[in-house]
Amino acid sequence: MGAILALSGTLPAVLLMAVVARYDSKRPEPKRQLYLATLFGGLSTIPVIFVQLGMEKANPGGVPGALYTSFFVAALTEETAKALALYFAVWRHPAFDERLDGIVYATRAGLGFALVENVGYLMGAESLSGFFGIFVIRAVLAVPGHAIYAGYMGYWAARKKFDGTGPGLLGGLGIAIMLHGAYDAALFVIAVLPKGPWQLLILPLVTVPVLVVVFGYRRLAAHAREALRLDELTHAPRPMPRLPFGMGFVLR
Length: 252
What we know:
- The chain is an all-alpha fold.
- It has one domain.
- It has helices at residues 3-6, 11-23, 31-43, 45-55, 62-90, 99-123, 128-163, 168-192, 202-235.
- The longest helix has 36 residues, at 128-163.
């Protein structure tokens, strides 16, 4: 399809960026750092392509090959790229000063990656019907998925940074890889299932990506609410200490 039409693939990612920004409306992040996280996420697609091409040479084929592609070629490389984008864009910046910021910046990196990837997929569409099919499916599942996977990295990185609890960035990366890998594995395994009774697995496998995105989002939204609650407690004004009678005038 034409490059101009394919650029419409940026819309789902841009829309989701606005949705995430609403969670952070009280103390919004500097636009420059948000743009930087998005840019780094988008640019990270370039080295990922070359790494994936090299890794695919070791693909054993069949169902094992589908699992290898899902968890290692796709999930490991892409989520690691997002983690690096988050780290280099904002990790040491003073603006990264709240727990919710981890989710905000990480989802930005994930959506930057998804934005570029989505345009690439749409450019490869061979017909108008194929274009709209890819657009809808990816807008509903794949693009939100990229934001959700990255969001877990950001949340746990921030909790470790500010509270000293949880698995941290590496643990969040592990969660992201498992979610992303499960999403891709269901689709890739369907493509290589041998004929016969194995075809009965198609229907349950089709539901896996939907479940990953829906339940992944619900859990991440709960993490976002918890991060916001803790941030509000941190920023809440401290009550004045009780003073002996007659001493209040000293502080006026």
